[in-house]
Amino acid sequence: MHILIVEDEKKTAAYLQKGLSEQGFVVDICFDGEEGLLLATTLEYDLIILDVMVPLRDGWSVLKEIRNSGQLTPVLFLTARDTIDDRVKGLELGADDYLIKPFAFVELLARIRSILRRGPTRQAEQLQLADLSLDQIRHKAFRNGQTLDLTPKEFTLLMLFMNRPAEVLSRTLIAEQVWDVHFESDTNIIDVAIRRLRQKIDDPFPQKLLHTVRGVGYVLEER
After folding, report:
1. Closest Cα partner for 102 from 2, 4, 6, 9?
2. Phi-psi region of 82 (alpha: psi -120 to 50; beta: other; left: phi over 0)
């Protein structure tokens, strides 16, 4: 497997190259966005690890140009940009995953392997389940043709479910992906958020799509 790393922090780049090489990957490194875009669009890679804040051309622009060129190479953002808006922007541009620095190498490796198992996929602009639809670019959601009035956090939560239909999502995964926090058993933040989302996407409609799997988590699916 051939990986391209676009990272201007040379110590971080060397650390990644050493660790991934030891896991059997072939690794190329570049330190700015211009070279990163050139390599990404002229050579074949199985995965690109991309920082947002790199010289000459930032990671957002690099990914946008990669996708505009028609390339489906999986891209994982690895960056210190840690807001929800940043993560949503990365996913909207077509990233396959988003990991925040500082990071644990074992988690990075797990995410890389997960992406490679899925193969190259490009995130769809429009997502649909039954009569529920979501526009990831325009940040709009609809049910039975009616616009849903969602908060930014509710939209991010729904986007997570819509990208993983029929998959049971644990509270821990939801907390990490939407709030970027580790779930604690004594907090009900996830349950409250799910209840509020249900009030908007399910309660006014006869068909219920967001279901509780007792003791496990939640799933968005037709039943």
Report:
1. 9
2. alpha
Cα 25 from chain centre = 22
Identify each DSSP E strand in 51-162 by its residue range: 75-79, 97-100, 126-129, 132-135, 140-143, 146-147
Q: Name beta bridge partners: 79.
A: 100
Of the candidates 137, 115, 118, the residue with the CA atom closest to the CA atom of residue 126: 137
Reported confidence tier of residue 7, pLDDT bands at 50, 70, 90:
very high
Q: Is the dihedral of CA 117, 90, 98, 181 positive or negative?
A: negative
Residues present in the chain in total: 223
Q: CA 73 to CA 165: how far, in whole Å?
A: 23
pTM, entire model: 0.56
Does the pLDDT value for residue 169 go beyond 80?
yes
Structural domains in the chain, sorted by start: 2-118 (3.40.50.2300), 126-220 (1.10.10.10)
With residue 27 as reference, give the H or E element that holds it: strand 26-30
Count of helices and strands (H, E) across the chain: 8, 12
